[in-house]
């Protein structure tokens, strides 16, 4: 039987589902823009309508980097007139001419709109050093991570094209062994804190920084990548292709104690700084890691084996958190999945796994997608941001995930969530106890439709339906094991209080009302 063809009108007129979903990444034009715009001398012209500028350069950059808007990014402002009648090249050339000022390198980036209509930059100045460069973002095919990787490689391939201004300050080569840090751009989660921690580790072993590329570099600095002795790639998602072309010994940013120690020793050996590295590691144990040792020796760690977590993040953070929190600290990983790349899990698969986990994770590391799942599925889990998208301010440098300081910060974060979970599930009294005016038996006798169940303790004075018992048991199994006693007591106490107020036994509607009251609101 032939399938009915779905018409555009059917799609447009279909009611919007109540369940809100979100994408886990931006398009290739956004990724490329965030690479070129973070160069100190970069001006970016996005070849598209005004929305292609407002979304990444005004709205998104505000919550990813806490920057009000990017002053060095504009767009060609394509309209129906250019697309259908006048052609797009004229307005694009006008915008490029305005952006092409002395001392600035212009990058023209395609957008989905310009790619759909086949627009492309053409100029007679392609061979002139410092002239505008066109980058095909392949927005309809690439995600932001692949586009970032290609954009970094594009900069390297055009390194001889970039003109150094005559008034540029002279570059002083670092004294002693130096290192490149490749990858930091706009729009990277927690990058300011993680870069600060990598800088601190390098300074500790006596290594100098050659370039933080491209975030703290000019386009004409690209050739200086060869001046270093080694390269640190901040993210697995992008930057590896550029590091491979540069050809220096390459290291990944480390997560946790074991990774960081191995990272420092391997890097120190490559740079000829073995003695300095060992001295720094010994000092860190007495300073930065003293807090880690104190927290680990406290009672918090006794609960770790019964405190499951879930991780849904890009490869760098997913793998790093899993190794540190799971392998080193011993927290059970109830679920983990990539949020980008060919191994990424579909949103519905993530939703199903988190909703059906038993017990539910105490803590879920993820993006706004996972935060919405927690709210929509009414999970008893706490949420902690570990990825974009998501409106979270990460501009301060005191919240690292990488290095020794990151190991302390993450351990502290888990313990705070542990206490929060314990506190949220403690049985509480809403009114001070009052002196009884009648014996308990007489009070129970006056209550309508209340059955005293002998031999089951003082907490079992009301009848529970089988459905209510089953729902209560299912609810308590969803919370972490170490708070189940408190949750069971709290649920039973409040359900029976509500049933007394209604003058009934405890049925499934009573249990549903109590559990809904404690479901996450956001």
Overview of the molecule:
With 522 residues, the chain is of the alpha/beta class. It folds into four domains: 28-157, Rossmann fold (3-Layer(aba) Sandwich), CATH 3.40.50.1980; 178-290, 3-Layer(aba) Sandwich (Rossmann fold); 309-424, 3-Layer(aba) Sandwich (Rossmann fold), CATH 3.40.50; 440-517, no CATH class. It is built from 20 helices and twelve strands. The chain has helices at residues 8-12, 28-37, 51-65, 80-86, 89-99, 112-117, 144-157, 191-205, 240-246, 256-271, 274-286, 288-297, 315-328, 347-356, 368-376, 403-424, 440-446, 466-477, 484-502, 508-517; strands spanning 42-47, 73-75, 105-110, 133-135, 178-182, 208-213, 230-233, 250-252, 309-313, 333-338, 363-366, 382-385. The strands form three sheets. The protein has a four-stranded parallel β-sheet with strand order 2-1-3-4, with helices on both faces. α8 (191-205) links the parallel β5 and β6 (208-213). The longest helix is centred in the C-terminal third of the chain and has 22 residues, at 403-424.
